[in-house]
Amino acid sequence: MKTSHRFILAGVYGLLAVVASFSVLAEDINPAPMLTVPVVIYGAENSTNVPPYAPSGWMGKFDAIELDDVSKDLPHSGEVCMKITFSDAKDWGGIVWQHPPNNWGTEEGGYHLYGARQLSFWARGAAGTERIEVKFGILKDKLYSDSTQAVLGHIRLSKIWRHFSIPLAGKNLSRIVTPLCISFAGTGKPFSFYLDDIVIE
Q1: Which of 23, 36, 74, 181 has the maximum number of C-beta atoms within 10 A of its C-beta?
Q2: Could you give the number of structural domains in the chain?
Q3: In this structure, which long-range contacts are made by residues 65-70, counting pairs with CB atoms below 8 Å and at least 24 apart in sequence?
Q4: CATH classification of the domain holding 195
Q5: What is the pLDDT of residues 31-53, one digit of tens each?
Q6: Are residues 7 and 51 in the same domain?
């Protein structure tokens, strides 16, 4: 069976057109602006400035999530900390820090975090039995995706403040749209946990 040269040429031209369209798309995307580390996402050090990322991406059973970013329940530093309460007994929820707010990779956003070595934060639970999952960079295959991903995984909180970090050294940080994602699941009753001094450094 002979294959027509016309079909071969059509396939080649079609492939070149696809490659060209991706090239144009890549050229149309501007590089992300650079932020100088340390970058304070939340904490006393940034109390007078607007943080570069916002906890705007609520997921799962989002109507069961309450966020109080001026809680005075024993902050780690400064006068306030962030308190997150989840009231659903069985479902799950999550909060993603985004730039700009509510950006799931469809809008131009994110920052180049050149020189960052880690995402650092402090956390504690109200009862000391709470479990959360922590990720860095969750957007893939989007027009404006995160340039890298990292996972701390599931951690169990205690009633006292504990320090946690996600290593970033050696990773491609040229566009980070979602530097922090925290998710949690129902435990049969409402629960609360606290965050403070969230810094990319």
Answers
A1: 181
A2: 2
A3: 65/93, 65/95, 67/95, 69/42
A4: 2.60.120.260
A5: 999 999 999 999 976 655 789 99
A6: no
Same structural domain for residues 1 and 40? Answer: no
The answer to whether 75 and 68 are in contact (CB under 8 A) is no
For residue 15, what is the enclosing H or E element? helix 5-28
Residues 64 and 51 in one domain: yes
Are 21 and 101 contained in the same domain? no
pLDDT interval class at 10 (50, 70, 90): very low
Provide the whole-model pTM.
0.85
27, two tokens: 């050229």
pLDDT tens, 14-28? 434 433 333 334 445
pLDDT for the residue numbered 139:
98
**What residue type is 120 in one-letter code?**
S
Burial class (CB in 10 A: 0-12, 13-18, 19+), 72: exposed
Q: What residue type is 166 in one-letter code?
A: I
Pair 42, 111 in one domain: yes
- Whether 72 and 41 map to the same domain: the answer is yes
Can you tell me the distance from the alpha carbon of 112 to that of 39, in angstroms, rounded to the nearest whole number? 11
Boundaries of domain holding 184: 32-200
More confident residue, 32 or 8: 32
